[in-house]
Write a structure and sequence with these properties.
Blueprint (H helix, E strand, L loop, with lengths): L1 H7 L2 H24 L9 H23 L6 H24 L13 H17 L3 H16 L1 H10 L2 H17 L16 H25 L5 H26 L4 H27 L3 H27 L20 H25 L1 H12 L4 H13 L4 H27 L1 H27 L3
Length: 445
């Protein structure tokens, strides 16, 4: 037994296991102590985690003595299970002798569940899974600490917000796992699994902005609303801000940088999508978008400084109008259909007309949506169906067209003053984008 133990577990490794387990237990115990838990606190939680680690260490030693090539073996599994059962008995006994709360309210189960989680975290540390053990302990402590904030967030959500979260759960956890992962359709251009993965990605980003807007509501300032609105739809945000400028609720000197910020957030969103879909090709796809982003942020910052120097200041306002729920199944299917259609058009255009056809389709797509053309061309670059420089040209052209669309919306719906200011703000990123586009197109190959 001693020889097997020595082969399986090194003494220095044991001390590391116990140290990591104890550190995680101290972190959770500190939080429970400050929360005045009468079941377990800053001393009990480290002991629980160390107990879990000891069970795992002894289980490894037993496996080393019997057969070190087959994991823990049945004795080790029984030992760890017995430790878990003993924790359950202790928690039960502790609740039996636990004094009733002063207001006779029933005790919650948070501390009890945290005890089992930290026992499992200790077991992970004892099995030398240090990263997961530390992540579980830290996440548990943070989750316990955010009780008040999470309750406040829950109370601030409307039925529509909760419905949006549940609909995203259906999109990501119900539909996605059963989607077939194979190429099909004309030109074998459509993979339903990868298509729906992009739907999950896009709706997830949009959901974050949607919920944030709903939570902040009318308290959101113009700039914050522009950032959050840019996550949902920078075009819709441009429409809202332009209407406010036209109605006199927002001055043109304030609306112009806000629209530029929404456009910048759109570029960040496109860069994330291109990075995910493009894989190794992202090194070619991201530089032009990065330059566009830097130019857009720079001029937006200068426009903000100019606006602050103006006479007076308007009160912070939120972007008006009800934001469309981005996780509705109908919206998800519409985006899937749009993405599939753009994918087919991109492949067809490339087959029939080469690079010129792809760029034409990219320009048309940029009139309404950046996500579909970005995902399509980046995915083709990743698969080697088009050159990375061609895909970068298509995405850059779509971004330029989309920025021009925002300028047109501002002129049409916001009036001359907003159009002039926004043209001044967006001129630099447009020029930078056009120069980089020409360089990409002129590259050989």
């Amino acid at each position: 037994m001693a020889d097997g133990y020595a082969r399986c577990v090194d003494s220095r490794e044991i001390f590391l296991d116990l140290t990591i387990a104890a550190a995680g237990g101290l972190l959770v115990g500190l939080q429970r102590e400050r929360a005045k838990s009468d079941l377990a606190g800053i001393r009990t939680f480290p002991l629980i985690a160390v107990f879990g680690a000891l069970c795992a260490i002894i289980a490894r030693a037993m496996a080393g003595a019997a057969d070190a090539t087959h994991g823990l073996g049945m004795p080790g599994v029984v030992l760890i299970s017995a430790g878990l059962i003993s924790m359950a008995v202790i928690v039960l006994a502790g609740n039996i002798v636990r004094p009733a709360s002063k207001d006779n309210e029933p005790h919650g189960l948070t501390t009890e569940i945290a005890i089992f989680v930290m026992y499992a975290s200790g077991v992970l540390a004892g099995l030398t899974m240090y990263g997961p053990a530390a992540a579980v302990a830290a996440s548990t402590a943070v989750l316990l600490h955010l009780k008040t904030s999470l309750h406040r967030l829950t109370r601030s959500l409307s039925d529509d917000d909760v419905r949006a979260v549940m609909q995203f759960a259906v999109i990501a956890m119900v539909i996605f796992p059963v989607i077939p992962n194979q190429q099909m359709g004309p030109f074998q251009a459509i993979n339903p699994y990868k298509l729906w993965l992009m739907v999950v990605l896009v709706t997830g980003i949009s959901l974050a902005g949607y919920v944030a807007l709903r939570v902040f509501g009318a308290r959101a300032g113009t700039l914050l609303a522009a950032v959050l609105g840019g996550l949902v739809s920078s075009t819709a945000t441009t429409v809202s801000l332009s209407r406010m400028a036209k109605a006199g609720d927002l001055e043109a000197r304030e609306a112009a940088p806000a629209i530029a910020i929404a456009n910048s957030v759109m570029l960040v969103r496109v860069m994330v999508l291109a990075s995910v879909a493009g894989g190794e090709a992202a090194g070619t796809l991201l530089p032009p978008l990065g330059l566009l982003l830097l130019a857009s942020v720079a001029v937006a910052g200068m426009a903000l400084l100019v606006a602050k120097r103006g006479d007076g200041s308007s009160a912070p306002v939120g972007v008006p109008g009800k934001q469309k729920n981005p996780t509705e199944l109908r919206a998800a299917f519409v985006f899937a259909a749009l993405f599939a259609g753009v994918q087919l058009l991109v492949v067809w255009g490339k087959e029939q007309f080469g690079t010129a056809g792809l760029l034409a389709i990219a320009a048309i797509s940029g009139l309404t949506d950046m996500d579909a053309i970005t995902l399509s061309t980046a995915g083709m670059a990743r698969g080697g169906n088009v050159l990375a420089t061609v895909a970068a040209s298509a995405i850059t052209l779509a971004a330029i067209v989309n920025t021009l669309v925002k300028l047109g919306i501002a002129a049409w719906m916001g009036g001359r003053a907003l159009a002039v200011r926004l043209a001044m703000v967006l001129s630099l990123p447009l020029v930078v984008g056009l120069i980089y586009l020409i360089v990409l197109i002129l590259q050989p190959g």
